[in-house]
Amino acid sequence: MGRTYVVEEGIGQYLTELSTKVKPYVTGLLIGQCSPQRDYVIRAVRTPPKEQQQEETVSSPKLASLDEEWITTHASQVSRMLPGGLLVLGVFLVATPELAKDGQNALRKLIFSVEKSLSKRRLWKLAEEEVSDRVALQVCSTTKKVVCRTYDVQDPKSSAKPADWKYQSALTASWLALGCTVNVNIHIPLLATSPNHDLEKNTKNGLNRWSKQIEDSVFLINGQVKDEDTELLEGQKRLRGNTQPSTQFSDVKVLTQLCQGVSARSTATVQVCSGSINLRGAVKCRAYIHNNKPKVKEAIQALKRDIINTLSDRCEILFEDLILNEGPQKKNFEREYHVLPQRLFVPVAGSSVMLSDYKFGDEAAGEIQERFVEMLDQPVQAEDIHIAEDISTVDICPVTDSPSDMQQAQLTKATLLLKLQQNMGLVMAAAVAVLASIFSFNYFSD
């Protein structure tokens, strides 16, 4: 028996509208949440059209002309705008009957390409027990027939499995939300051996180490440590049959361990560095979870990943902005302060879930509105854009001494230590000789 996808009712209307507007086909992403029992699809988002692509599809209506790179880039951009608990669940294709034959082959290829692109950016890995099936939905633009299948993205040889596609109204009206503020103060050394002061690579390595600290942190939900296998709502009143958006919000405190356990071994490494990167600030994190008896471990995992993603994503955005403004090769390595983009949240009509985005200080509300329309096909009112946090910074600090000077200083220090050890040996030998003479004198005098 295949998986069941519970789908927000408005998605059916959205796909029908697409079938009447776009010829001969349109692709897009399915956004939602996995759970052990079933998956939830809360949004469908068409791939933004390219002018060149529109001309090509009119003259040559073949699925072979699908722009795979454009679709995977769109998926990467959309994934940045999803809070914890939400992910790209799969892809859809609305096509004419003439193209239906090649539809599943095209969708299979897209599913694996999208997952490969998204997994490269993640600083976390899917757990063994997690659902790794992704959905491929094909809709006939004429008959409106829906074909839903899944592929296991962890198995490159995976074949299609049938799945159920069921609509439900007000699917996310009473989903649960968790939120926290995480204070960040990360010091990342820049190795002197790193070519061209590769800031982005060093930053990702530093964030990788930091993400392991987040994974090992203790999470207090409303001031309590809860067993991972208990229900998140245990002891709380459940909202059933509620069709109006009503969020049950849990405040979470993140306690990061200051030191390793007694059994863990620790080694110190001395490395020659050309500078450092310092990330400082307080980031707002949020995760959403379905209301069908969710477990504590599902909620904590969703929030952990949002914490890791939000810092990683905004560092990526910053470096992309630096490349656009300063070019990919920056020769001067001087002390610089940069402001990380701030996180904002935007409500979804008829839902308790909010979507996310990032803005630089000089970005106007109009630019954010345009991005939501382009990336998520969703109009946004300026008054609905909520800036969630204060400014966080990146401080890039070069070392004043050149690497050669530093090495010379280390060599001089090592030489002094060696001489000190030799001198200490002479002193100890002299002390032993004196004690021996005193002892022999006392012995003979007796």
UniProtKB/TrEMBL annotation:
Taking the first listed entry, what is the main subcellular location of this protein, grouped into a coarse class?
membrane
Q: Which GO terms describe its biological process?
A: intracellular protein localization
Q: Where in the cell is it found?
A: Membrane
Q: What are the TM regions of this chain, as residue ranges?
A: 424-444
The entry's cellular-component GO terms read: endomembrane system; membrane
- Entry keyword set: Membrane, Transmembrane, Transmembrane helix
> Of which family is this protein a member?
Belongs to the ODR-4 family.
Q: Describe the function of this protein.
A: May play a role in the trafficking of a subset of G-protein coupled receptors.
The identity of this protein, by name, is: Protein odr-4 homolog
- Taxonomic lineage per UniProt? Eukaryota, Metazoa, Chordata, Craniata, Vertebrata
